[in-house]
Amino acid sequence: MQIDIRNLSFAYGRKTIINGLSHSINPGDYLVIRGKNGTGKSTLIKCLLGINSVKNGMLFLDNTDINTFKYWTKFGYVSQDFDNFNYEFPLTVEELLKFSSIKKTQPQDYLKLLDQMGVLDILNQNINSLSGGQLQRVFIVRAMLNTPEVLVLDEPTASVDKQNTEFFYKTIDAYNKQGITIILITHTDSLEALNYTHTLTMNLDLSVDIEQKTPEKEAKLL
Ligand SMILES: Nc1ncnc2c1ncn2[C@@H]1O[C@H](COP(=O)(O)OP(=O)(O)O)[C@@H](O)[C@H]1O
Ligand SMILES: [Mg+2]
Fold first, then answer.
1. 6 CA distance to ligand 1 centroid (A)?
2. What is the DSSP code (8-state) at residue 162?
3. Could you tell me if 184 and 30 are in contact, meaning their C-beta atoms sit under 8 angstroms apart?
4. For the chain, how far is it from start to end, CA to CA, in angstroms?
5. How far apart are CA 80 and CA 181, in angstroms?
6. Is residue 84 scored above 70 in pLDDT?
7. Which in 16, 89, 116, 171 has the greatest CB count within 10 A?
């Protein structure tokens, strides 16, 4: 998907969070959105996903104004407050995945994705019994089941330990190599382990720095 942000501003009431941001995200890009807590990272992606409605500036998704865009299933999104939903009823991981895909799900689809995420062993566990990190990975599998063009992950490793974080980033790389656009938000992780193409850093003074990874940085990573 082609994403074009043109002079976007956004405020909650009188509090401006985004001030005149322009950037294009091309198909296959891997964009890391960085910045301290409260700089507006989650706010920005909620604008991109149509959750926050944009009144100042323009947002185009595949050259269509966001206000008339219809193909929301092209996005896979795991929000920062992914565990804020009600799951009081007993549901296993498999049941959750079976019921939440928009298309008919074959077991091999989610089994493969669970395996890639390193959580195949929890298939029959009740979702209430999972750790935060496990639940987060199940939600990423759920987002991937609909074969999104763009995968948006808001602080996906917040509750994942170091070893699993490395494994997790390798999986995200593999998805990116398949051509899926990745938008990854992080406020803590160093970028060393990430095979991103661009960074967008949000600062508390509302300025934004956008960088494309240079060949020198690429070489350092190898
Ligand atoms: N729904 C909301 N209503 C009012 N203020 C909000 C809302 N959501 C976030 N904010 C405020 O907007 C600022 C940016 O928040 P957020 O986008 O969540 O930052 P980040 O994801 O970078 O930590 C913060 O000061 C936060 O308190
Ligand atoms: Mg956030």
1. 21
2. H
3. yes
4. 28
5. 19
6. no
7. 116
43 lines ligand 1 (CB under 6 A): yes
Whether residue 118 contacts residue 167, with contact meaning beta carbons closer than 8 Å, is answered with yes
The ligand that comes nearest to the alpha carbon of residue 35 is 1
Ligand 1 atom nearest the C-alpha of 46 is 17
In 3-state terms, what secondary structure has residue 71? coil
- State both tokens at 100: 């939440």
Cβ neighbour number for residue 67 with a 10 Å cutoff:
10
**CATH topology for 28-36+74-221?**
Rossmann fold (3.40.50)
CA-angle at 24, arms to 23 and 26, nearest 5°: 155
For 129-181, write each residue's pLDDT tens digit. 888 888 888 999 999 998 999 999 999 887 777 777 888 888 999 999 999 99
Give me the residue spans of the domains in the chain: 28-36+74-221
CB-ligand 1 contact for 90 (6 Å cutoff): no
Mean pLDDT of all residues belonging to the chain: 90
Closest approach atom of ligand 1 to CA 80:
21
Spatial CA neighbour of 180 closest among 214, 213, 152: 152
- Tell me, what's the pLDDT at 217? 65
Among protein residues, the one with the nearest Cα to ligand 1's atom 8 is 43
Give CA–CA dist 186/156, Å, rounded.
Answer: 8
